[in-house]
C-alpha cells in the first residue's frame, strides 16, 4: 500500500497546500472526483463572471440616457459569450497537465472515502480502486447545490450551476426563467438572464434577498432588481413541480400569508443553498466529527477533532467563498510547513455579489453589532453625494441611488462596511485591509504591506490586480497562481 506524507482530498484550493508540501520535498497525494480547479473554476465564480460582465455592459448602456448618451438595443452574440465562458472552464485541462508533471505528486481521479483515520480508499473513475495511507490529511472537497425535496422535481427537470456549466448551457437565453433561491448565485443568474432579455422571476424562501446581509442593502437590491423587470417573491417554499404546455410550473407554499402560489417559466434554476461534499467521505469510519448539516468541525487552526486531519473551504461551513478557501490554505500552509503562528480569523471576510447593482460587504451588520452588545455608530454616503456618482447619473431623487454604510463602535473602531452600487467590490476591499491593520505589528512597521498580506481579496475582483502584484516582485519567485 502506498504511503504519503500528505493527502489532499479535493482539487480546488487544496492544491495550494499540495504545492507547498512538494516544495518541502514531501510526498503528496491529491484526490479529485471531478474536474481539477474546484467549484470556482468549473461551476462557480470564474465562468459566472464571464456571463456577468456582458450583462453589466447591457445594463450600463441602458443607463446611458441619464447622462445624455443613448445606445441602440444591443446585439447579443450568445455563442461567443458561451465560447469565452467555456474557454475559462477548460483551463482545468491545463491545470491537470501541469499537476501531472510535478515530482512527488500522485494524482487519483475518483471519489475518496476514509477507511480509518489514516487510510483512504479511492473508487477510481476508470472503474478500479486504490488505497493508500497518509500522515496528514486535508479535507477540501467543497460543496454542491442543495436539491430540495420537491414532488415532481426530477421528472420535470431543472438547471443548477453544476449543470449549466457542465455541458447543459442553453443554446440561447431562455424566454423565461424561474430562479429558486435568493443568495449570491440566484441573484447573479437572475441579473445575467434578465439583462439578456429573459423574463426572470425569483422565489425566495426567506423574507429578504441575500440572507445575513445588511437589511438596507438587501432591500435596495430587491427594489432595483424589480425596477429592472425582475419579479421577486419572498417567503415561498417549493412543494411540487410539473411540466405542461411547454412551461415548468412550480407550486409554492406561502409562508407569510398562507395558501399556495404557482409560478411558471420555460426553465427553473435551483440555487436554494449548498450542502458539503462529505456524505460519501466515510467520516464516521475515521471518527471525524461534523455538525448536523454535515460540515466538518474545525478550530481556528483548521484542525478537526483528529490532530492530523484538517479541513478548508466550503466543507468546513464557514463562508463559501473561494478567497476564504485560499486564505485558509495559506494559514494551513504556515501551520504545517511554516512558523505555525497563524490562525484563521474571519472577522474581516469581504464578499461581493455581482448583481446589478453590485453589492459588497465586510465585517458586521448593524444588527449583528447590536446583538454583540455594541452600541454602533453608523455613517451613510450616497453615490449622489459625490461628484463621481453625480457624473454617472445618480440623483438624490432616484430609487436606484446606491450608498455606502459604515459601522464603527463608540471609539471609532471599524466594525463593518457595506456598499451597493458600481464597483462595490473594489470600494469595499480597503476596509478589509483596514480591519487587518493596527496592533503592535503595524505600529512597528508604518506603511508596511502586512495588512494586505493578511487580508482576503475578493475573488474575482479588480482588487486582485494590485494585491497579487505583491507576490511578483522582480527577482523573487512568484507565488503559485490562485484560481
Describe it.
The chain is α/β, with parallel strands linked by helices and 483 residues long. Helix content is 31%, strand content 24%. Strands 1-2-3-4-5 form a five-stranded mixed barrel. A five-stranded antiparallel sheet has the order 16-17-20-19-18, with helices on both faces. A four-stranded parallel sheet has the order 9-8-7-13. Helix 1 runs parallel beside helix 11, helix 3 packs antiparallel against helix 4 and helix 3 crosses helix 8. The longest helix is centred in the first third of the chain and has 18 residues.
Give a topology summary.
Blueprint (H helix, E strand, L loop, with lengths): L1 E8 L4 H10 L4 E5 L5 H6 L1 H18 L15 H12 L1 H10 L4 E10 L4 E6 L4 E11 L3 E3 L7 H4 L4 H4 L11 E5 L3 H12 L3 E5 L11 H13 L3 E3 L2 E9 L2 E8 L5 E6 L1 E4 L3 E3 L6 H4 L22 E3 L10 H16 L13 E3 L5 E5 L2 H6 L5 E6 L4 H5 L11 E6 L5 E7 L3 H12 L3 H6 L5 H5 L8 H5 L16
Parallel strand pairs: 1-2, 1-5, 2-3, 5-15, 7-8, 7-13, 8-9
Antiparallel strand pairs: 3-4, 4-5, 6-14, 10-11, 11-12, 16-17, 17-20, 18-19, 19-20
Helix pairs in contact: 1-11, 3-4, 3-8
Amino acid at each position: 500500500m502506498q504511503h504519503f506524507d500528505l493527502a489532499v482530498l479535493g482539487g480546488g484550493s487544496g492544491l495550494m497546500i499540495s504545492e507547498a508540501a512538494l516544495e518541502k520535498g514531501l510526498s503528496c497525494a491529491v484526490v479529485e472526483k471531478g474536474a481539477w480547479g474546484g467549484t470556482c473554476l468549473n461551476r462557480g465564480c470564474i465562468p459566472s463572471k464571464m456571463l456577468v460582465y456582458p450583462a453589466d455592459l447591457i445594463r450600463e448602456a441602458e443607463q446611458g440616457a441619464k447622462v445624455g448618451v443613448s445606445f441602440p438595443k444591443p446585439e447579443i452574440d450568445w455563442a461567443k459569450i458561451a465560447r469565452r465562458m467555456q474557454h475559462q472552464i477548460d483551463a482545468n485541462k491545463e491545470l491537470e497537465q501541469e499537476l501531472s508533471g510535478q515530482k512527488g505528486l500522485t494524482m487519483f481521479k475518483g471519489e475518496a472515502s476514509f477507511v480509518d483515520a489514516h487510510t483512504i480508499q479511492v473508487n477510481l473513475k476508470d472503474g478500479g480502486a486504490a488505497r493508500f495511507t497518509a500522515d496528514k490529511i486535508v479535507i477540501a472537497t467543497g460543496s454542491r447545490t442543495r436539491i430540495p425535496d420537491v414532488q415532481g422535481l426530477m421528472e420535470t427537470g431543472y438547471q443548477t450551476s453544476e449543470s449549466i456549466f457542465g455541458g447543459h448551457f442553453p443554446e440561447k437565453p431562455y424566454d423565461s426563467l424561474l430562479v429558486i433561491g435568493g443568495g449570491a448565485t440566484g441573484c447573479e443568474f437572475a441579473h445575467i438572464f434578465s439583462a439578456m432579455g429573459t423574463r426572470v422571476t425569483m422565489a425566495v424562501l426567506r423574507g429578504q434577498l441575500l440572507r445575513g446581509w445588511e437589511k438596507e442593502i438587501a432591500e435596495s437590491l430587491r427594489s432595483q432588481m424589480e425596477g429592472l423587470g425582475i419579479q421577486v417573491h419572498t417567503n415561498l417554499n417549493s412543494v411540487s413541480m410539473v411540466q405542461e404546455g411547454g412551461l415548468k410550473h412550480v407550486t409554492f407554499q406561502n409562508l407569510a400569508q398562507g395558501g399556495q402560489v404557482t409560478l411558471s417559466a420555460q426553465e427553473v434554476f435551483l440555487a436554494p443553498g449548498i450542502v458539503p461534499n462529505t456524505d460519501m467521505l466515510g467520516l464516521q469510519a475515521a471518527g471525524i466529527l461534523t455538525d448536523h448539516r454535515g460540515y466538518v468541525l474545525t478550530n481556528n487552526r483548521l484542525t478537526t477533532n483528529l490532530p492530523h486531519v484538517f479541513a478548508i473551504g466550503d466543507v468546513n461551513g464557514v463562508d463559501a467563498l473561494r478567497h476564504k478557501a485560499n486564505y485558509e490554505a495559506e494559514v494551513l500552509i504556515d501551520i504545517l510547513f511554516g512558523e505555525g503562528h497563524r490562525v484563521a480569523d474571519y472577522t474581516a471576510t469581504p464578499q461581493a455579489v455581482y448583481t446589478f447593482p453590485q453589492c459588497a460587504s465586510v465585517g458586521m451588520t448593524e444588527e449583528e453589532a447590536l446583538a454583540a452588545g455594541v452600541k454602533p455608530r453608523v455613517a451613510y454616503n450616497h453615490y449622489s453625494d459625490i461628484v463621481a456618482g453625480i457624473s454617472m447619473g445618480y440623483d438624490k431623487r432616484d430609487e436606484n441611488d446606491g450608498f455606502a454604510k459604515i459601522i464603527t463602535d463608540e471609539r471609532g473602531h471599524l466594525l463593518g462596511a457595506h456598499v451597493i452600487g458600481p464597483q462595490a467590490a473594489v470600494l469595499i476591499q480597503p476596509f478589509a485591509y483596514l480591519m487587518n491593520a493596527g496592533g503592535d505589528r503595524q505600529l512597528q512597521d508604518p506603511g508596511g504591506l502586512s495588512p494586505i498580506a493578511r487580508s482576503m481579496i475578493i475573488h474575482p475582483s479588480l482588487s486582485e490586480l494590485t494585491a497579487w502584484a505583491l507576490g511578483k516582485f522582480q527577482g523573487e519567485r512568484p507565488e503559485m497562481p490562485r484560481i
